[in-house]
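Subject: for your reference before the review

Hello V.,

The reviewers asked for a structural picture of the protein, and I figured it would be easier to keep everything in one thread rather than splitting it across files. Below is the amino acid sequence we used in the manuscript, unchanged from the supplementary table.
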Amino acid sequence: MQGNPFDGIRYLIRGGKIIREPGLRKFVIAPILVNLVLFIALISTLVNLASGLMQQLQDYLPDWLDWLEWLLWPLLVLALLLMVSYTFVTLANIIAAPFNGLLAERVEQHLTGQPLPATPWAQLLREFLPIIFNEIRKLGYFLRYAVPIGLLLIFPVTTALGTPLWLAFTSWMLALEYLDYPMSNNKLTFPQVRHHAGQLRLTSFGFGLIVMLLSAIPLLNLLVMPAAVAGATAAWVDKYRDL
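And here is what came back from the structure prediction:
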């Protein structure tokens, strides 16, 4: 596999610096507001899921396997955290997709020095439905693999297998999610996005992994989305564009 996972991490850090540029700050407001609302809703969901599944685990194990509870509990919490983290990012990206596409466009123009379009908001409204459709298409690709892996997370005895699989799959999906914004702006289809990401698979995995981990940290996750959009756009300009 080509690429370097540390390059992916560096691009997210770079994205966090890019969104602080004076000309780009106003395009970060909408994604942050979307993240804030969803974060409050999903935190309460996570608490309810964790308590319910823990009770299920206690009822499922026979008395002589009570010791397994201490081993499976951390895995169960990690699995739930990963699932909620990705759900949070996915829903936020679907809702904020038009704004993220505009942010990616502005970041690319900032990095390349190309002139800005005269009417960005009119363009945003014109492309709203195609962008939402593309997000739904990505969601379909995600569900194709997430359902069987998710089933492994539901049953306590298979959680140990499902957790690392979910970790790897989520890292890949998040890389596709954010690379899709600059690539879609340059008229690449979602299959082409997957092809380009696969050419530097380790870089893509590194980027998706750090996005996923930071998305699970309260308050910090509010800034992850715009930073990831900017970082993925920088990676597109530097590396993926010429593949």
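For the response letter, the relevant points are probably these. The mean pLDDT is 80. The chain is about 80% helix and 0% strand.

Happy to draft the paragraph if you're swamped.

O.
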